[in-house]
MBL fold metallo-hydrolase (Chryseobacterium formosus), 211 residues
Amino acid sequence: MFQIQPFVFNFASENTYLLFNENKNAWLIDPGNMNEQETKVISNFITENDLKITKIILTHAHIDHVLGLQWAFDTYKVPVTMHQDDKEVLDMFQVSGMRFGFELDHINVDLEYVIEGDELDFDGEKFKIYHVPGHSPGSVVYHNETQKFIISGDVLFEGSIGRTDLYKGNYEHLIEGIKTKLFVLDDETQVFSGHGNPTNIGFEKQHNPFF
């Protein structure tokens, strides 16, 4: 069974997740820690629970989801998994930082790309990959059918959807992707979003005002 530990980090109240199992293996998802204090919080949790980071996973590469990415890569020395269509977003990290008044170094990490239809293996458990652009060009959702949950990034929130007024955003693509790839999942499927509280597919189909 997986455990999911959220951490709320940085100026955007972004959800960073640690996904781990009884073997103490863990995926670090969207590391948004932006200062020493936040880094210490997640680092201590990993150490105290004797977790081994086997993958660093990105739902997308907007600045608030990757502020701790260089630290994570340098510390745990595992490749970063993401969709190639967000590579250009990742390359804009320094420029994005300037817009928020931050002086940031260029991110230099090893990348592994996933596409629609891929499956990632986590100690025998499969995670399906859904490419759902619209918030960013390479937004992906990670789905575990066995335990019925998705890591949705900024695609779908409790009562909302991701912004579509950012670089290469597209409202129609996002709505269509959610309807055809996420709303077809079991209603009990939990949704762990990039911001805010967890929700589930059934609730969002019934109550999300965007649908």
Q: What stands out?
A: Helices lie at 36-48, 63-66, 69-76, 87-91, 93-99, 171-182, 201-207. The longest strand covers residues 3-9.
